[in-house]
């Protein structure tokens, strides 16, 4: 079970994990051992609440295909177990990211004192620059 939030969990059967050979350097280990993990998660067939599914499908992320399948490849570690944990963690963070809603910004006006401070600092800066000029006789 993958815990998304206090009351949202994903069953292990919904997440397809496949071990593949890793890319890059690593000597003979790369040629012999399948240490990278290829994770596939179908959003449409998942038991996620509708709220999560809709937001995941609207998300503009290269890891989500047009068919609604999340594909994550983890290969940064030489150990298959560590790569499996990293892939699951990335899936978890991706799903959690859509649950967070930003607060709407309320437009405000700067106070009179803030405007005065801004103009004062601009005036001081102008004086500093004016003092650098050559003196006029």
Strand order of the largest sheet: 3-4-5
Overall mean pLDDT: 85
Give the percentage of residues in beta strands. 15-25%
Largest β sheet strand count, sense and barrel closure: 3 strands, antiparallel
Stretches where pLDDT falls below 50 for ≥5 residues?
none
- What is the rounded distance between the termini? 83 Å
Q: With helices defined by DSSP (H or I, 4 residues minimum), what is the helix count?
A: 4
The radius of gyration computed from the alpha-carbon positions, rounded to a whole number of angstroms, is 27 Å
Describe this structure in words.
The protein is of the alpha+beta class and about 140 residues long. Helix content is about 40%, strand content about 15%. It is built from four helices and five strands, in the order E-E-E-H-E-H-E-H-H. It has a three-stranded antiparallel sheet, with helices on one face. Strand 1 and strand 2 form a beta hairpin. Helix 2 crosses helix 3. The mean pLDDT is about 85.
Labels describing this entry:
137 residues; alpha+beta; 3-stranded antiparallel β-sheet; two-stranded antiparallel sheet; 4 helices; elongated
Please give a quick description of this structure.
By secondary structure, the chain is an alpha+beta fold.
Topology:
Elements: E1 2-3, E2 9-10, E3 15-20, H1 28-32, E4 36-42, H2 50-58, E5 69-74, H3 80-99, H4 112-132
Antiparallel strand pairs: 1-2, 3-4, 4-5
Helix pairs in contact: 2-3
């Amino acid at each position: 079970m993958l815990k998304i939030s206090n009351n949202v969990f994903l069953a292990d059967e919904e997440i397809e994990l496949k071990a593949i050979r890793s890319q890059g350097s690593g000597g003979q280990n790369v040629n012999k051992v399948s240490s990278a993990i290829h994770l596939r998660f179908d959003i449409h067939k998942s038991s996620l609440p509708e709220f999560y599914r809709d937001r995941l499908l609207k998300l503009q992320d290269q890891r989500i295909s047009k068919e609604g399948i999340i594909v994550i490849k983890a290969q940064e570690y030489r150990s298959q177990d560590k790569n499996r944990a990293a892939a699951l963690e990335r899936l978890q963070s991706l799903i959690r990211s859509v649950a967070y809603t930003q607060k709407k910004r309320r437009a405000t006006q700067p106070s009179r004192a803030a405007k005065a401070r801004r103009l004062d600092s601009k005036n001081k800066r102008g004086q500093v620059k004016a003092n650098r000029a050559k003196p006029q006789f």
